[in-house]
Structure formats: C-alpha cells, structure tokens
Design brief:
The protein is mainly α. About 65% of the residues lie in helices and about 5% in strands. The two termini are about 40 Å apart.
Length: about 350
C-alpha cells in the first residue's frame, strides 16, 4: 500500500512540474491568450487548427456556446442552430469576459497542451486522494493533505481562468505561480511523510532555521522574477521581439533588487553548505541546491549579457521551481532530525 501511494504521489509531482514547464513555455512564446475562453478553447474541447474554423459559414450547423470571430470580436452561439445565407446577429452574443479576439494556431495549441497537463495533474492528484482514504485510520494527515491538494488544484484551475479573463494581469500570474509551488510543497510533504525512512545525520537548530530562511529567500526571488518577466513582456510589446538588446536597457527597481538579492541568496546557501560539511551532516540535498543556484546564475547572466538566448527564460523559471522543491524537502529533513543545540 505504501509503495503504491508513493508512486502515485511521485507521478502527481512530476505532472505538476510538467505543468510548470508548460506554463513557462507559454510565457516564453506569448501564448497565454492562445485560448481566450476557459475551460474550452474557442468553444471547443479540441481547439481549431485553422482560422477558417472560426469564421462564420452559411448553411452550417453551430452548437450552443461555439465561438466564432466576427468583426474582430468573439461571438458565442446562443443555442444550437443552422445558419442561412446571411449572418443573423440574433443567434449570437458577444463574449463578455474580455475583448481579446486573435487566433494564432501555435499559441492556441501551446496553451491547450498546457491545459492538458493541468488536467492530467488534477486527475492524478484526485486518484491520490482516493487512495489516501486507506490511511484514514492510521495516518489521517496523509488523507487530509491529499484532499487539500485536490482542492488546491481546483483553486489553481480557477486562478488559471481568472488569468485568462484578466488578459494576463501580472498580479494574477504571480499568484498562479506561487500556488503551483504550494502544491509542489504539499506533494513533497506527502512523499516525505509516507516514505517514513531514516535520515542520515542530524541538524542543529541554527542550520534548520537557516534552511527555512533560504527557502523563503528563494520564494521572494521567484516572485521578483515574475515581476521582472512582466516588465520584459511589456518591453517586447514596445520595441518588438527582435530587439532583444533593448528589453533590459532601462530596467525597473525590481530587476536591481532581484539581481542584488541573488548575492545574499548565494552567500546564505554557501554558509549552510559549510555548516553541513563541517558538522558531517548529510549534504546530498545542499549539493543539489548549490548546483541549481549555479544554473540559475548562469541562465540569469545569459539573459542579461547575451540578450535572452532561446529557452533561457523558461529554463530560469523551471530551475527556480525545482530549487524551491529541493529546499522545501531539505526543510522537512532538517526539522525532523533537529538537535537541541
């Protein structure tokens, strides 16, 4: 039973990370509005592959809530009906959530794949919650946490809808990202508690506290990074996608805070590693933390000094989310094996 539960939890965690990766690709390609409605995409469960599918057609059978683009506006079918030889506005109503009405097949399918990963992750966590009922008598925390994850996934889906309805409002994108990390943390907590295996070494109170502070610093950096990314998106709209050398020509204060704060993050984690090495503690996780921070620095420098090479932006975000996961698991380990010192 334990191994099956752990397997489902790990699959769920992988799928959630795939959603994060897909979301990063959506941001990189500017595909956030590829599906302007939710949960369907242009009124379809499987989105169109050509703009002609969204054009009004005569003698055509339309289904209720099906979407077309007419006069640069989204129109939604009121009922099931068949068109005549001329357009009848009484059969349609305007889409009221926003006024974005652009179809780009690549953007649409990139966003659609992102949603598919989200649906798979939601299904996996639901299966996990059902299986967790077996733990109700012995380990209620596992069952309760599993069902909290299901509700968190539902809330995350709702947040995704609000992001679309707001036409990618920066604050809502940031909340959406932070919520994904909360779900990662909850799944890691489940895996940690269900594993119930011994941990090599013990950690003093100061080390445990420093690891917790380092996790908080990473979260702050991720939030700041989303703000910097929003500024970059705005610059792309102003100067164009080809003028990469101008995207960070006059950055905002958040950029300088994000860049300067990274120095403190590096020094803090180096000090944590030093404490673990000198006290002969288990340091496999802190090694991964240092490697991931090094990769974060490299991708950050590439974006700033080499004018955003391909995939550097989503890679920077994905590495940060993996770093958060490793540090959170390290927090769980250090608190379990904490010494009174």
């Amino acid at each position: 039973m334990q191994q099956t539960f752990l397997r489902i939890a790990k699959i769920s965690l992988i799928l959630v990370y795939l959603v994060i990766i897909a979301g990063a690709v959506v941001r990189m390609t500017g595909s956030g509005m590829g599906c302007p409605d939710w949960p369907k995409c242009f009124g379809y469960y499987i989105p169109p592959t050509d703009s002609s599918e969204l054009e009004w057609k005569e003698e055509w059978q339309y289904q209720k809530n099906q979407v077309i683009i007419k006069d640069e506006m989204l129109r939604v079918a009121k009922t099931n009906f068949k068109t005549n030889t001329s357009y009848d506005a009484s059969n349609w109503e305007p889409y009221t959530k926003h006024d974005y009405a652009i179809f780009n097949v690549w953007h649409t399918w990139i966003e659609y794949i992102n949603r598919l990963f989200g649906a798979l992750a939601g299904l996996a966590t639901f299966v996990l919650a059902l299986y967790s009922l077996r733990y109700w008598k012995k380990k209620k925390k596992l069952t309760i946490t599993s069902w909290l994850i299901v509700f968190a996934m539902g809330f995350q889906a709702w947040l995704g809808a609000t992001v679309v309805y707001s036409v990618l409002e920066p604050v809502k994108i940031t909340i959406h990202m932070v919520m994904a990390l909360v779900i990662v943390a909850m799944l890691l907590y489940l895996i940690f508690k269900a594993s119930d295996r011994a941990i090599d070494g013990s950690y003093d109170k100061r080390t445990a506290l420093l690891v917790f502070v380092a996790l908080g610093c990473t979260l702050i950096q991720i939030v700041l990074g989303t703000q910097v990314r929003q500024f970059v998106d705005e610059q792309i709209d102003l100067v164009g996608e080809q003028a990469k050398n101008l995207w960070l020509l006059e950055p905002t204060l958040q950029f300088y805070i994000h860049r300067s704060f990274s120095i403190f993050v590096v020094l803090l984690n180096l000090y944590i590693a030093y404490r673990m090495y000198t006290q002969l503690q288990n340091h496999s996780k802190i090694n991964w933390v240092l490697i991931l921070i090094g990769l974060e620095i490299v991708t950050g420098m590439l974006m700033y000094y080499v004018d955003f090479p391909f995939a550097s932006q989503p890679l920077h975000l994905v590495i940060a989310s993996i770093l958060f996961g490793v540090q959170f698991y390290l927090v769980l380990e250090t608190n379990k094996q904490k010494l009174v010192v």
